[in-house]
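Ticket #4471: structure export looks truncated?
Reporter: QA, pipeline team
Priority: medium

Steps to reproduce: submit the single chain below to the structure queue and open the exported record.
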Amino acid sequence: MAELVDDVPIARTGAAITVVGNKMLVWGGFTQEIEGEGDDRFPLNIPLPEEDDEDYPIEEYSITEQCWRRHQTSGKGGNADNIPAFGSGSVMISMGGLVYLYGGWNDQQFSNDVFRLDPVKMEWEKLPYTGYPPVQKCHCGMVQYQDKLVVFGGIGMAGEPGRGGGAQYITCHDTTVTYGYSWNNELHSFDPNTGHWQEIDSPNRPPPTGAFTFTEIDPDHAILFGGRVEHTRMNHVYILDMKSMVCDGGVVV
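Actual output as written to the record:
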């Protein structure tokens, strides 16, 4: 086991991670503090970075040195609006030497923004967009296809009637998540170079689900396993052909 030294991150859940070269970057998540006294004690979720932390830190773990470092980040042009404020349940990948973060939840609302991090300058930029983006959500999946981001599923706001792409939405009644929102099986692609979102109508897509594993298995295919809707946990497997955007699967393992 690697020895953790230097700036070891505080304990958390729901963080977004990706690997750039030989370094793992960790952003956001929730930490927890116990409030109150005696029988009135209760856990309080605290989004990261905390509101009063003006360094907007991102954690870095060096795989070769086996140690942690903490870096201050900033927003492009000195604008804090260019820094993501939705660190829990976001998804983050590296592509072309840059880092992209989508979605998330900050204990008050969801996000459907895309942010780009320059890991050399440690500078964030919120990307403008055109087209029809996914709903504001978290606990979705994101992979790379060519020079685009492909985003699937999650839990968030209800979908708008008449939207294309053939997505389905299941109203969330599970009060341990967030009452009144919905699980979805939206499929979108985003081109960071043009800022354009495209809805994708994919046959045989997985049912609405969130909190699954979604990862590339080769440049043209991604695999999805598991997930949940309400109190039901899934164990199905789907493979997405990103050339045709057709899913094959539904296999229970």
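Status: closed, not a bug. The export was complete when the record was re-opened. Leaving a note from the reviewer for reference: Confidence is low (pLDDT under 50) at residues 1-5.
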